[in-house]
Please model this.
Amino acid sequence: MAITALNSAATGLRALSTRIDVIANNLANAETTAFKRSRMNFEDLMYLMLKAPGATNGDGEPSPAGIFVGLGVKISNTQLDTEQGSMESTNRQLDVAIQGEGFFKVKTLSTLGDGFAYTRNGNFFINKNRELVLGMGDGYKVVPPITVPANTTDIVISQDGNIDVLQAGSAAKKNIGRLRMTQFVNPQGLKVVGGGLYQQTEASGEAIDSFPGENGAGILLQGHLEGSNVDPVKELVTLIKTQRAFELNSQSIQTADQALQTIGNLRRF
Amino acid sequence: MTYGLYLSATGVLTNSLRQDVIANNLANSETVGFKRDLPLFAEMLTEARMRRLDPARHSNPVLENLGGGLRVLPTATDLAQGEMESTGNPLDVAIHGEGFFAVCDARGMHLTRSGQFIVDRAGRLTLASGGQQVLDEKARPITLDSSGPVSIGNDGRVSQNGQEVARIGLFTVPSSRLLSKRGAGLLDYPQLKKNLRPAAPTLRSGFLERSNVEPATELSQLMDAHRQLEANANMIRYQDQMLSRLMNDVGKIG
Model:
């Protein structure tokens, strides 16, 4: 009955309004460093079988196909678009962008998942203990820790992650460590925890540690930050399509409602 | 007269079902790879004919000529090509032409047109929606590694680091009328393994096939279904009023 149509259209409205939420978040982060846009995927819900295929008709012949009525739509997932963002030059020594695959590993609060998180936002700072930390959040430390010695005048981070420093009163460069890179078989399965941080999940697979430029990991660019990969035009087009689809579903609701009203009014004199 | 009531009721019921099907099509107007269902109807045979009885003996010839009302035909799916939408994601693949991807899960093998792939933790090429494994041209699962970017060619070749790793299987079935929808973009077919036929449509990597629901068509159908439902409902009301007159007014004394 028309109740099914009401419910199907309601599933459409719900799913589409969630998609508007996702697009709004993408657009809000169009200027967030190393932000990765999410895409909402839909799938059709199960089908109500009114008549099974193969049921026999009056002549004793099995019917070749059944009667199925779909019950609407559901959100299957939000998929992280791991496409590279554009490189923005900042000329700051502790800004490091990853060109290619991979994440920086940082130590977060031990209460947050397994205590580690991964990010592509290489906007580093030096804390009061002279350790290399992330600029955002609570200053999460880079794993393995890198300590910048006192009296440092110049920091050079090479493409392969080696960090060399020049100290006051010394002409020779000194290597103080190497930035690592972590990869995942399925980076789209990572959990998004906000603040540009991602965490390992069952779906992403185990973290694979390597160094920049090795085993398919990307290279590092000092003095650059990775921009957001949100394409405003694409998002707006999706927003328009979503709004129209939303309106269509509200039409289904109105029609189903009128049908129910007509049926409800059958016995009026 | 009560016979007419039943005929009108079949009209209300089938048109209500038609609305359900259209509502589902519209709800899936943004679902990748979705194919619209066609609510098809036919004249229903009279009870006597359906039971293969002799109408002359078991029925009234006048009523026999009226038919049995309206009934729903088995669901048909419109397999027309959906539009191509560019996404730029190398693991998004659209089929252009006739054919399906074959996927498999614990419940067996299914067909789908939804080409949103993802590499899972074990390196298997799977559907992003339900995690079903995508099968190659010999119906075996496809496994990749994390060594480098994956690309999918127009003929279904999956390459990683410039090397061909697998070939995505593209299949058709002998009769598209026997396809039934399982939900989540999956289609079932009786004895699918035996009935798989290789197909050679063009693949487009970085694209997705949009739902083939046409809002204008669906909305006009929806309006049509609504008016037919109303007309039939009005007929029910007239006949009801007529019966009421017959019983309450005709032969009233004084």
The first strand of chain B starts at residue 37 and ends at 38. Chain B touches chain A through 74 residues (CB under 8 Å). The two ends of chain B are 27 Å apart (CA to CA). Residues 215-248 of chain B form the longest helix (34 residues).
